[in-house]
Amino acid sequence: MTINDDILAQLEHQAIEVPSWAYGNSGTRFKVFGTPGTPRNPFEKVSDAAVVNRLTRLAPTVALHIPWDMVDSFEDLRKHAEDEGIKLGTVNSNTFQDDAYKLGSLTHSDPKIRQMAIDHHLQCIDVMDATGVEDLKIWLADGTNYPGQADIRSRQDRLAESLAAIYERLGDNQRLLLEYKFFEPAFYHTDVPDWGTSFAHTLALGEKAMVVLDTGHHAPGTNIEFIVAQLLRLGKLGAFDFNSRFYADDDLIVGAADPYQLFRIMYEVIRGGALDPASPVSFVLDQCHNIEEKIPGQIRSVINVQEMTARALLVDRTALTAAQEAGDVLGANAIFTDAFYTDVRPDLAAWRESRGLPADPVAAYAESGYQEKINAERVGGTQASWGA
Ligand code: LRH
Ligand code: MN
Ligand code: MN
């Protein structure tokens, strides 16, 4: 099996948004390791993101996290991104680091705290207005640790009201994307734990509200590709947060832990029409590089997505449908796995070269001297970290 022109044409427009926070230092609750060359401000994070795009032509936008990426002038940040050849992407809100939100944000029983959380989201929409960004991504840490701690049902009612107040402020082309996560930091119940809850709220809000599927936010063993198929069928899949995990929300490089799962997800993406440039689904990385180099880690990540997309495009869907309809269980499975086991790396490397890109973008980065340059330049100041 080889990658033909039809497949290359479908890969041509693939875009994977990178997260600004992947370029800052991150770690676990045990240790955050500092690394030379780490950005000291959002401008430097945008510059690093642009390097990933220059070497891969796969990452034309960078997601922001507010307040981590707060700057005096978003107009300047937007211009800086454009000068570097990329654009600013999704604006992520953050109501998980203030003391005030210890017992909840948009779900809090105190109307003053709820209003504070709503106002933060309205400020995020102001940032979107100033930068031309269309997507507001909301992930809430809201939840409880102990049964009986709070009334689960009234928290849902308050959440619906708060979300409606935010939704109200969206411009015509703007969207509210609601991300679910089954646990952490709350350990007993989480207020948006699953796709069903996110679906129910976004359905009630209206067409501009959609669900975010973060691949690390499910219980082990969950069939994520089924959720992808279902949300696409319902027209409510707004975005992916890609990463991979072995145990919890590990935020490792996408495709690293379970490449076959990424293949199965990309197959459903293609089956559901979400690779079409007109599709509303956006593909975003949500990762941290705790011990590995960050820029090469991001390059590896976008290439992993590209490779698994190419493999999923290799599935002979006509033959697969025929085998499925004939009840040929093993035959259908073989058609599926034949595509998965095809090494597409040489074909993609040749294609990259034909488009003036390096055959091996990770090696090209190592040879580019960029890392040495930022190691020398970015001394002094405070390194950005997950959380600042
Ligand atoms: C929560 C999450 C969410 C946040 C990001 C930093 O676990 O996935 O998307 O915005 O991590
Ligand atoms: Mn996420
Ligand atoms: Mn997460």
Automatic annotation (TrEMBL):
Any Pfam family the entry gives: RhaA
Gene Ontology MF terms in the entry: L-rhamnose isomerase activity; manganese ion binding
E.C. number(s) listed in UniProt: 5.3.1.-, 5.3.1.14
UniProt entry keywords in alphabetical sequence: Cytoplasm, Isomerase, Manganese, Metal-binding, Rhamnose metabolism
Transmembrane helix found in the keyword field: no
Gene Ontology biological-process entries: L-lyxose metabolic process; rhamnose catabolic process
Xref: SUPFAM superfamilies: Xylose isomerase-like
Name of this protein: L-rhamnose isomerase/sugar isomerase
